[in-house]
Amino acid sequence: MFQIAPTTRVRRSPYFDATVAAGVTSFTPYNQMLLPTSYGDPEAEYWRLLNGVSQWDVAVQRQVEIRGVDAARLVQILAARDLSNCRCGQGKYVALCNHDGTIINDPIALKLAPDRFWLSIADSNIVFWARAIAAERRLQATIVEAEVSPMAVQGPQAEAVIAAMFGDWVRDLKYFCFRQTDLEGIPLLLARSGWSKQGGFELYLMENSRATALWNLIAEAGRAWDIGPGCPNYVERVESGLLSWGGDTDERTNPFEVRMGKYVDLQVGDEVIGIAALRRLHRRGIARHQLGLLLETETPMPPHTVWYDLQVARRKVGDMTNGVWSYRLKRNIGFALLAREILPGAAVEVLKEGKRIAASVTELPFL
Ligand code: THG
Prior knowledge:
By secondary structure, this protein is of the alpha+beta class. The protein has helices spanning 16-21, 42-51, 71-78, 126-136, 158-166, 211-221, 234-240, 275-284; strands at residues 26-30, 33-38, 54-57, 63-67, 90-93, 96-97, 103-105, 108-113, 116-120, 142-145, 149-154, 178-183, 186-191, 200-205, 228-230, 288-295, 308-312, 315-326, 331-339, 347-352, 355-362. It has three domains: 16-62 and 148-237, Probable tRNA modification gtpase trme, domain 1 (Gyrase A, domain 2), CATH 3.30.1360.120; 63-145, Alpha-Beta Plaits (2-Layer Sandwich), CATH 3.30.70.1400; 289-367, Aminomethyltransferase beta-barrel domains (Elongation Factor Tu (Ef-tu), domain 3). The longest helix is centred in the middle third of the chain and has 11 residues, at 126-136. The chain is globular and about 65 Å long. Bound molecules: (6S)-5,6,7,8-tetrahydrofolate. Residues 61, 93, 106-108, 120-122, 150, 193-195, 202, 242-243 line the site of (6S)-5,6,7,8-tetrahydrofolate.
């Protein structure tokens, strides 16, 4: 087996030592940083997320901080969603598009103050993009990757753990809303969010030197609920229909294709990047749409490293962009990016490593 060579270009999360101590067994690079992907027992990690509570190092969700007199204007220019009604302490899921309307990232935009925002980004370089746009538009904004490291606490018991540590006020926190607070003097921002549909919180640590201390405090407090280490869970997110930018999107994917149309506001100002293209795409209708696939195979499928062609009557109709064995549905499932005319109920074939696998098209999410 091969390894990822340790270099300064593959950054370690401040929780790295804690995750190693907790028994992490694999990582993937994300935003030039290592993201834990397993602690050795994927199925146990899945059921813990579904039935209990798990603790994730998601420091790879980097915060692109945008501050200054033109910060609000710049964030609105970058995001194809109306942010005029976004309050301080509120987050919103947004599509960042290029001038063609292609999604280049799908962050949560957090409004910390009228002149200070974080874009909690997926896996692409938005610091470069935001700086270039600010310079071209002659906007006054400082753009940096903040020294902030999110940890997620996810699962049906997450609220009990977080309330035990922070108090009952956390129970009233609305989805994607956050508050700046601390835990035994460790400064952090506590948000109700996280990349699962099992409920939970994210703790945005604001002092990286305290990462191990924070990790251990959560692990200790969660012991009564049998907390354990986990990761953004591939199986749960496919079942729940959560989008993975870069995994489920390509060089021409627009928000309407991947169920993000409800987060696009076509009436935002003309200065918003890609909005003219998005209006055109909306008017003319999209070429592809994202749906689910139920495969007619009995044995669990290993994770994809490439997209698989989808065919109907030997003609390509789209791509299968991910696939997993669903522990709840007890079959292989995945996402498809399909030609518009292929609708739920259709039968397609997956071309996988020289084999043809029958599959049926269904709506997302699966569960
Ligand atoms: N949390 C934080 N940062 C992140 C992620 C996160 N950065 C990277 C990545 N995840 C960004 N992408 C997403 C994708 C989906 C969601 C959040 C971030 C998500 N979607 C829900 C859905 O589609 O059903 C809810 C969206 C909504 O209701 O507005 O949660 O997870 N900090």
